[in-house]
From TrEMBL, chain A:
Main location: other
Function field: Subunits I and II form the functional core of the enzyme complex. Electrons originating in cytochrome c are transferred via heme a and Cu(A) to the binuclear center formed by heme a3 and Cu(B).
Keyword Endoplasmic reticulum appears in the UniProt entry: no
SUPFAM superfamilies: Cupredoxins (SSF49503)
Gene3D superfamilies in the record: Cupredoxins - blue copper proteins (2.60.40.420), Rhodopsin 7-helix transmembrane proteins (1.20.1070.10)
UniProt keyword Thylakoid, yes or no: no
Species for this entry: Sporosarcina ureae
Keywords: Copper, Membrane, Metal-binding, Transmembrane, Transmembrane helix
Protein name listed in UniProt: Cytochrome aa3 subunit 2
Catalytic activity: 4 Fe(II)-[cytochrome c] + O2 + 8 H(+)(in) = 4 Fe(III)-[cytochrome c] + 2 H2O + 4 H(+)(out)
Membrane spanning residue stretches: 9-31
Automatic annotation (TrEMBL), chain B:
Primary localization: membrane
Keyword Iron annotated: yes
Keywords: Electron transport, Heme, Iron, Membrane, Metal-binding, Respiratory chain, Transmembrane, Transmembrane helix, Transport
Family, as annotated: Belongs to the heme-copper respiratory oxidase family.
A matching Pfam family: COX1
Cell compartments where the protein resides: Membrane
Native source organism of the sequence: Sporosarcina ureae
Superkingdom, natural source: Bacteria
Cytochrome oxidase subunit I profile domain span: 1-482
Annotated TM spans: 12-34, 54-78, 90-111, 131-148, 168-195, 215-238, 250-268, 288-310, 331-352, 372-392, 413-432, 452-478, 510-530
This protein's name: Cytochrome C
Keyword Electron transport: yes
Length: 166, 550
């Protein structure tokens, strides 16, 4: 099969770029630990409280060490349960100081949801039976909309929250 | 090269597929327009119609119905032209048409009555009415009948032409249909074995991750199933339209074989942000995804080489003279060319989407919607339109008149402008976090959300322009089908150079290429599938109320 000289140059250049590109994302993933979230940890979707992280008292923001936080969230159609405020009303806004490291842990009680803190790298699928986790350093201050970005039913666009970095 | 003439009854079959295609374009396009209007925040749907009903209709009608009907019909015509069709095969062609049409009507009925607002990716454990799943199964089974008829057509031709290489276009059709068959096995298993019994209540729970994985095993080759017929036109039809010859028969075949191999074992790149799949296997499938770069680069080279060789032969020898002298005023060339141009940003966006960790920046944002409106809704559809301008009059015994040609050129411009506005604003809004698949919402308010909404207004403007383009295209279709003057329109098929090199026999070694394809699938999916099943959580019970079913 005949390959034109220019086509050989074109393909060799293209393939070399591809190899370089794959090495970069491979290096970032395996050595720098920037894999997309994949914890393969399961949970019973009809009994999420059986997992300590998702008991009603443990939902929402907890400071686990200096500058390190965990946020536990139970998603269900069409709401994110971020726990309760001191006055008993449902928490809608998570407030963390700038520069803090925040681990988001989310699971679903019913159908498939999304969980994105828009404007950050936190973007996960949330599926019944699985726990989704993503840790991020909140480098910028401001208000970030938490949005369900995976279709979950006719109230899908009404499912949201806020992360405020101050 | 042997070229068969179409009999009247043959043309009728191919036209039947075209009628469904263009009716789907109109219906699906209207849904798209309504979506962009709703998302602008300035318009609410009448009669209590739910946003997600029109979203599901838009996706199913354009993503599955329009594409599959056009492709099956176009491919039947390619087979009829290059290897011929017997009466018995013609009958099977009609059976495939009717099975697909009945399936479409059943699914459409469920979607339009709000019983199936599950979008075309199914979204278990949301549960649609069982008839929705049965309808979609019929669409796929109908396309299988077409696939096996196409296989039979080439087989019969081969037996009568011992030792000859198969016609290039017939070879390409068979590659596409092998890929389609192997890929749809996954979604068919998911629907028939996992979802249907569960939707009927015979099984209590469903494994959500398994249905998603099987869907995406099908979902990515699906996009290649749309693209390959466009490639067929680019490789083997466009050269004829511009007055040239095939660039290389063997390289075209090799590109199609590579596309077959690397189209299927790649579905995880749609599931990169899912919690239940091992990241190493995700990365392996990312690498396999990127192998598509090779046939893509080959295709780009071959297209521009054809353009240049043809132009220089006509005596346009200056550096870019051959490019300036391409037949820009021939819509049969212009529309597919604009499609090719859109594939450059489309492909670049695809590289971003499939890039393992970078994906989390854009996953499920409206960036993705912007991406596939460049690829399928510009590259592929403009090429399909480019085919329709000669295929429809060829089938109906009419002519593409200069007036219709001109309208086609205007249509192409309208499409390019509308899509540039809509797709660009989708890409930008996605990069700053705006979600896809969502009705208008102000969420918690704030600056972020009001920026999103400003881009949604641009999408409504682009969407409106595109809908005007759809109306114009539908008008052109009706003209070509029923009113254009009688005459003869050429079915352009490019020929090889007289002194073309012989294509190696190995390119037609089906056992080898299908064998490698299956081996790659087994490599990419066996271990992660075992993991998914072994580590599966308690199954999910069905949910009806979130989609408004009682």
């Amino acid at each position: 099969m005949h390959l034109h000289k220019y086509e050989k140059v074109w393909l060799v250049f293209g393939l070399a770029s591809l190899v370089l590109f794959l090495l970069i994302i491979g290096f970032a993933a395996f050595w720098k630990g920037t894999h997309p979230q994949s914890h393969i940890e399961t949970i019973d979707p009809q009994n999420v409280e059986a997992n300590e992280s998702f008991q009603p008292d443990n939902l929402g923001l907890t400071e686990v060490a200096d500058g390190k936080y965990v946020v536990n969230i139970v998603a269900s159609a069409f709401n994110y349960d971020f726990g309760k405020e001191e006055d008993g009303t449902a928490t809608k806004t998570i407030r963390v100081p700038k520069g803090s490291t925040v681990l988001f842990q989310v699971t679903s009680k019913d159908v498939v949801h999304g969980f994105q803190v828009a404007g950050t790298n936190v973007n996960m699928m949330v599926e019944p039976g699985h726990i989704s986790r993503f840790e991020s350093v909140m480098k910028n201050d401001g208000e970030f909309t938490v949005v369900c970005n995976e279709y979950c039913g006719i109230g899908h666009h009404l499912m949201f929250g806020t992360v405020e970095v101050y | 090269m042997e070229i068969f003439n179409f009999s009247k009854k043959e043309s009728r079959l191919y036209m039947a597929f075209m009628h469904v295609t263009f009716i789907s374009l109109l219906v699906g396009g209207l849904m798209g327009l309504l979506q962009t209007l709703v998302r602008s925040g300035k318009y609410t749907l009448p009669f209590n119609i739910d946003y997600y009903t029109i979203l599901t209709t838009h996706g199913v009608i354009l993503g599955l119905v329009l594409t599959t009907f056009f492709i099956v019909g176009f491919q039947f015509s390619l087979m009829g032209k290059t290897v011929g069709i017997s009466d018995k095969q013609l009958m099977w062609g009609w059976i495939s048409f009717w099975v697909m049409l009945v399936g479409t009507v059943l699914s459409a009925w469920m979607i339009l009555t709000g019983e199936a607002s599950v979008l075309y990716t199914f979204y278990t454990p949301l549960r649609a009415h069982p008839i929705f799943y049965i309808g979609l199964t019929l669409v796929i089974v109908g396309s299988w009948i077409a696939a096996f008829t196409n296989f039979r057509q080439l087989y019969v031709w081969k037996k009568a032409h011992k030792g000859d290489k198969s016609p290039l276009l017939a070879f390409m059709v068979v590659i596409n249909m092998i890929m389609w068959f192997v890929a749809t096995l996954g979604v068919a298993y998911s629907v028939i074995v996992l979802i249907l019994p569960w939707s009927l209540g015979y099984v209590a729970t469903v494994n959500v991750l398994l249905t998603r994985t099987l869907f995406w095993y099908f979902g990515h080759p699906l996009v290649y199933f749309w693209l390959l017929p466009a490639y067929m036109a680019w490789y083997a039809i466009i050269p004829k339209i511009i007055g040239g010859k095939l660039f290389s028969d063997s390289l075209a075949r090799l590109a199609f074989i590579l596309l077959l191999m690397f189209s299927i074992p790649v579905g995880f790149h749609h599931q990169l942000t899912e919690p239940g799949i091992d990241p190493t296997w995700k990365f392996i499938q990312v690498v396999l995804t990127f192998m598509v770069v090779i046939p893509s680069l080959m295709t780009a080279f071959s297209l521009f080489a054809t353009f240049e060789i043809t132009g220089r032969r006509k005596g346009y020898n200056s550096l870019f003279g051959w490019f300036k002298k391409l037949p820009w005023k021939d819509v049969r060339f212009l529309a597919p060319f604009v499609g090719m141009a859109a594939f450059i940003p489309g492909g670049a966006g695809g590289i971003i989407n499939a890039s393992h960790q970078v994906n989390s920046l854009v996953h499920n944002t409206i960036w993705i919607t912007g991406h596939f409106h460049l690829t399928v809704a510009t590259t592929v559809i403009l090429t399909f339109f480019g085919i329709a301008y000669w295929l429809i009059p060829h089938l109906t015994g009419r002519r593409l008149t200069p007036r219709l040609n001109k309208l086609g050129i205007i249509q192409t411009f309208i499409w390019a402008i509308g899509m540039t506005i809509m797709s660009t604003s989708m890409h930008i809004q996605g990069l700053i976090g705006g979600p896809r698949r969502s009705a208008f919402s102000k969420y918690a308010g704030g600056d972020q959300v009001s920026t999103w909404i400003s881009y949604q207004i641009w999408q409504a403007i682009g969407g409106t322009i595109l809908f005007i383009g759809i109306l114009l295209m539908f008008y052109i279709f009706i003209q070509l089908a029923f009113f254009a003057p009688r005459g003869y329109e050429e079915y352009p098929i490019a020929e090889e150079e007289v002194d073309a090199e012989k294509s190696p026999k190995i390119l037609e070694n089906w056992y080898l290429w299908i064998g490698i394809t299956i081996a790659l699938i087994l490599f990419a999916y066996t271990i992660p599938m075992i993991d998914i099943i072994k580590h599966s959580p308690p199954g999910s019970i069905p949910f009806d109320w979130p989609i408004g079913r009682s």
